[in-house]
Amino acid sequence: MNSTSSLSQKVLKNKYKPLFQFFIDGIKDLYWAEKAIETLLKKNKSLAYTEELSDAIEDHEQQTHKHVLRLEKIFHALNMKPEAKKCEAMAGIIKEAEETVATTPENSMTRDAVIIICAQKVEHYEIASYGGLLQIALTFNMESIADLLEKTLLEEEETDLLLSDIAESYINLEAAEEDDDEDNDEDDKNNKESKGDHKNKSTSSATDMKKGENAK
Question: Which terminus of the chain is less hemmed in, N or C, by CB atoms within 10 Å?
Answer without folding.
Answer: C
